[in-house]
Specification:
single chain; 202 residues; alpha+beta; Nuclear Transport Factor 2, Chain: A; five-stranded antiparallel β-sheet; 5 strands; 16% strand
Length: 202
């Protein structure tokens, strides 16, 4: 649980204002927005206490626009992607996006002033995919090692996160392994329905 929370903490830390820095150093993007999402959470604390579902609004506005959920969803589908219709792909992407909103919202609701240390990656020039390591220190002085994989859109120059590696474990690879097997056994429509069911239970 500590690792999963740390993942969400760091995603929230740097995604808020990435849109205004689409051509800039991705490390500077991370540093420049390190307080924004949590300032929003703190500002909306009373509203969150009265309406816990408001965390989803914060996630939708602050995180999702800067998370390449479509690319991540396609990676999760893997080789099955080519056997799907456009409608199935759109439904899967939407269900996957909602799953992310719910999952991150559930965990970010527990935010409690963790410290974030970003370890800059200075070797990003000319690359489309980079990894940025981060350390999370909680109030008990526990440290969680995180690495974020970002992808640069060749048309817009915008950097977006598509995978998170927590203590050496890729969340994208884990989800791909889990859902790929289900798609293979039951088909993509079954997995879409499964995701939608999980989303309705949050």
């Amino acid at each position: 649980m500590r690792i999963v929370f740390a993942v969400c903490l760091i995603i929230a830390t740097f995604l808020t204002h990435a849109q205004t820095n689409v051509e800039s150093d991705p490390n500077q993007v991370i540093h420049s927005v390190s307080v924004n999402t949590f300032a929003r959470i703190n500002a909306d604390k009373e509203k969150l206490q009265a309406q816990p579902d408001h965390i989803r609004v914060i996630i939708e506005e602050q995180l999702i626009p800067y998370f390449d959920y479509k690319f991540a969803a396609y990676k999760v589908m893997g080789s099955h992607l080519k056997n799907t219709t456009r409608e199935q792909r759109d439904q899967f992407v939407e269900a996957f996006k909602t799953y992310l909103i719910n999952a991150y919202g559930h965990i970010l609701f527990e935010y409690d002033q963790q410290e974030v240390e970003i370890l800059d990656n200075r070797h990003f020039q000319g690359k489309r995919i980079i990894t940025i390591p981060v350390k999370i220190r909680d109030k008990n002085d526990n440290i969680t090692q995180i690495a974020f994989k970002l992808r640069k859109n060749k048309k817009t120059g915008e950097w977006k996160v598509f995978d998170v590696i927590a203590e050496g474990i890729s969340m994208l690879d884990t989800k791909q392994s889990e859902l790929n097997e289900l798609i293979h056994k039951h088909g993509v429509d079954y997995v879409i329905t499964l995701l939608e069911k999980k989303n309705s239970e949050f």
